[in-house]
Amino acid sequence: MLRVMIVDDEKYIRDELKYFLKKYDDIEIVGETGDGEEVMKLIKKLSPDLVFLDIQLQHMNGLLLARKILDQENSPFVILATAYNEYAIQGFEINVSDYILKPFSEERLKSAIDRVKKQMNKEYKYAQKDEEVEINKLCVFQRDRFILMDIEEIQYIESRHQDIVVHARGGEYSCNFSLKELEERFKKKRFIRTHKSYIVNIDYINEIIPWFNYTYKIKIKGKEEVEIPVSRNYLKKFKKILGI
What we know:
This protein has helices spanning 11-21, 39-46, 62-70, 88-93, 106-119, 122-130, 179-185, 232-242, and strands at 2-7, 27-33, 50-54, 56-57, 60-61, 77-82, 98-101, 137-142, 145-150, 154-160, 163-168, 171-175, 191-195, 198-201, 205-210, 216-220, 223-230. The chain is of the alpha/beta class. It has a five-stranded parallel β-sheet with strand order 2-1-3-6-7, sandwiched between helices. The protein has a five-stranded antiparallel β-sheet with strand order 12-11-10-14-13. Strands 15-16-17 form a three-stranded antiparallel β-sheet.
C-alpha cells in the first residue's frame, strides 16, 4: 500500500487529486493540508511514502519545502504539482521523483505514480546508481532567470540567512541546493568545505591567513574584501588537502 499525503493551498485542487487517487486500490490517502507551515509536522506524524506538493504555496516557496522534506532521513518521495513546467528542472535538481502539471491529466498522474513505485523497488534504485551521469554545471537563478553555470565559474558558496548564495565571477546567484547537498555534489571537484556556512573553490584561494586558536582565514582572488573562515571542525581536512 502506497501512503500518500497531499499539500496544496487550494481545496478544490486537493479534492480533484483525491478523486483520481481513490481509483487506485493500492493507494491510501493518509493526510492533506493547505498550510505549508504544518507540512513537516504532518510528515513526521503520518509517515507518508509519497507527498504531492504544490510549488506555489502561499507564504512559502514549494521548492525550498521540497528540499527540506528530501533532506530528512528516510524521506518520502515527492511529486511536484505546478502550472508551469519550467519548474521541472529545478525539481529534478533536488531529486524529486516527478512533477505533474495543473490541470491534472489522469494519464500523466498514472505515469508519475508508476515512476515512484519503480523507485521504491530496491533493485531499481541500485540500477539507477550505476546510470548516474557526472554533471559539471549547477542550476542557479538571478532576477527570475535560471542559468546553468559551469562550476569552474564558482568562487565560493555561502549560506546566508537560510538562503544559499553562489558567488561567481559574474555576480551573486541563488541556488535551491543545501550546502550539505553541494558538498556531496562537489566532493570529487576542486571544492572544499571550510565552515558550516562556506564551501570554497580551491582554484580561487589567494591567501591563507593564520587566525586565532590555530585556525585560518581565506582571501579570494578578485574579492579582497572577503575573508572566509576555516573553522576547527573542517581544519584537519583543509590542512591535509592543501599541504599546510
